[in-house]
Amino acid sequence: MRARYGIPLKTTAAITAIGAAGIAYAAGIEARSFRLRRVTVPVLPRGARPLRVLQVSDIHMVGGQRKKRAWLQSLAGLRPDFVVNTGDNLSDTEGVPEVLDALGPLMEFPGVYVFGSNDYYGPRLRNPARYLLEKVQGKHGLNGNPPAVGVVHNPWEELRDAFDTAGWVGLSNTRGRLKLEGGFELAFTGLDDPHIKRDRYEKVAGGPEKDADLSIAVVHAPYLRSLDAFTADGYPLILAGHTHGGQLCVPFYGALVTNCDLDTDRVKGLSTHESAGNRAYLHVSAGCGTNRYTPVRFACPPEATLLTLTPRP
User: Fold this and answer.
1) Average pLDDT by consecutive 10-residue portion of the chain (313 residues)?
2) Among 41, 111, 275, 302, who pairs with 168 as Cys (CB 3.0-4.6 Å)?
3) How do the domains of the chain map onto residue ranges?
4) Which top CATH class is 36-311?
């Protein structure tokens, strides 16, 4: 017996079964298969001791995610010199206490942070196929428009206040510093989220601070306008998140979208960026969470990154 369009019923059933199995794996297994990426970046002055930087991003915390919370807590065992949080901590209006529980052990270390759109606004239920089509067509963010009527506002101020109380330095369109043991001084320049047009580079323009041992640029979404500005100004290292590494990738091919105007070849991990004759290292975290309405990952496990900064050759 044949189904419509001449496709055998057995074939239709097999395709359906494969699709269901893929979704079950992506949601039930891979989305909870947390990994640690390790990279080395030669950006320190000659003679400096290596520094261990833990980058966490795109946690998208939803109530009840115990495994994710326990894994984040365990990262404190890495004993980083400092922590960089590149935003999108929330995917639940009630998620702040669980985020703080997950990050509590890490907040014992020096740290800096920027926020992403999901820290400010709750996620919306959308058609995944339409979402992918929009991204392939180059439609990203709010395109300059304010959030739609009915969008849920997340309690990001509570998150900010807790981070600030712990001594983490907020970098939303501003600069900040950390002084590590041994007197090594780090300067940071950060932007608010370009994905929702909150970035104001003119407020932080001017390049690295000459009296710091190292200057690092931090932003949630790696839009090219931000990467170009940071690189042209001479920053040696840019840290970002937002992309989820593509989230739904094709094995042996890679990501289909980045959810910004960055090319898919640099959707996660360490790469370089060039602008105005300068070159910077760019690290994009694939993050460790998902939007609460699309809790799946395929060929793109959730992750945090331990970056070891070493002296330049």
Assistant:
1) 50 41 61 94 97 98 96 98 98 95 98 98 69 54 50 94 98 98 96 97 97 98 98 98 96 95 98 98 97 92 98 95
2) 111
3) 1-32, 36-311
4) alpha beta
